[in-house]
Design brief:
CATH class: Alpha Beta
Number of strands: 5
CATH architecture: 2-Layer Sandwich
Order of helices and strands: EEEEEHHH
Strand order of the largest sheet: 4-3-5
Radius of gyration: 13 Å
Helix content: 25-40%
Length: 91
């Protein structure tokens, strides 16, 4: 993988692969315990990064990866939003 100098890398919580931040989706749990998709990548809270691929999202849902990483129960709606976001980007 070739990266430009200064480009931030983050690790996908599903694949454990280091990738440029722009290729990942950030999911956040804030202090109130709310879980949401952070499209800006700058919101406060505990964040988890996932690769922008449908099979990765489905694997995360099946294995409850976000529940473990964010220390909370992640609603199914979050996974549906992630899938919709990826489908919209692919078009």
């Amino acid at each position: 993988m070739v990266r430009s100098k200064g480009e931030p890398l983050r690790k996908c919580v599903v694949t454990q692969e280091m990738m440029p931040k722009k290729q990942l989706i950030r999911i956040v749990r804030n202090k109130e315990g709310e879980v949401f998709i952070d499209e800006t990548g700058k919101k406060n809270g505990r964040g988890a990064y996932m690769t922008k691929k449908l099979d990765i999202i489905e694997k995360a849902e099946k294995e409850q990866v976000l529940n473990r990483h964010l220390n909370t129960n992640v609603d199914e709606a979050i996974y549906h939003q992630l899938k919709d976001l990826i489908k919209a980007e692919e078009q």
